[in-house]
Amino acid sequence: MTYRLLAMDLDGTIIGNDLIIRPRVKEAIARAIDAGLIVTLATGRMYQGTKRFADELGIVQPVLCYQGAMIRHTGTNETWYHEPVPIDDARQVIELANQQNKTVIAFVDDQCYVSTENDDSRFYHRHSGVKPAAVGDLRAWLPEAPTKVLILTPKEETDGTVAFFRDRFSQTLFVTRSYPLFTELTHVNVSKGR
Q1: What is the full per-residue pLDDT of the chain (194 aa) written as tens digits?
Q2: Beta pairing partners, 148
Q3: Of all residues in the chain, what percent are helix, strand and coil, respectively (each to 5)?
Q4: Smallest Cα–Cα separation from 145: which of 65, 81, 80, 88?
Q5: Which of 153, 150, 132 is nearest to 93 (CA)?
Q6: Residue 184 and residue 174: Cα distance in Å, rounded?
Q7: Do residues 15 and 56 touch, judged by C-beta distance below 8 A?
């Protein structure tokens, strides 16, 4: 079998918690590109948090971001595909998470937004390299359907949070644990594989 495409995750695959791509990994990816493979990234990260890694690796291809909810080309920044969370569902998720005193980040137009800056939003900033903007009441502020909604919890609460939101939104949202502290919600049709 001849492979034509190599699609790689970022977190825990190409990068660790230090967000550094090791020289060995860079060399292997460069060899794959030189061999004629289409090399791309498939990640839960937002586009602006993904592009810097793609640039570092010399990847000039469409990359899959937000668990597959957005595909954008790193050379042209053209969006090839976008499937946002229905806005009514997003507002309900934010309201339910607020009732549970959980931090919510909403992703709109490849920017991220939070109600107020706190330890969770500062952690997300360190983890992603992108600082969430504080907008006050996130639910009321939400101007359009977000690409993704992220709920941050202590790691011992994440599985319960995933189960809670899956139970309530199984028909309209794809709910997954993407990191020990992250519950991610995207449109039900979204997946990296699709």
Answers
A1: 588 999 999 988 999 888 899 999 999 999 999 999 999 999 999 999 999 999 999 999 999 999 999 999 999 999 999 999 999 999 999 999 999 999 999 999 999 999 999 999 999 999 888 999 999 999 999 999 999 999 999 999 999 999 999 999 999 999 999 888 999 999 999 988 88
A2: 107
A3: 35, 30, 35
A4: 88
A5: 150
A6: 8
A7: no
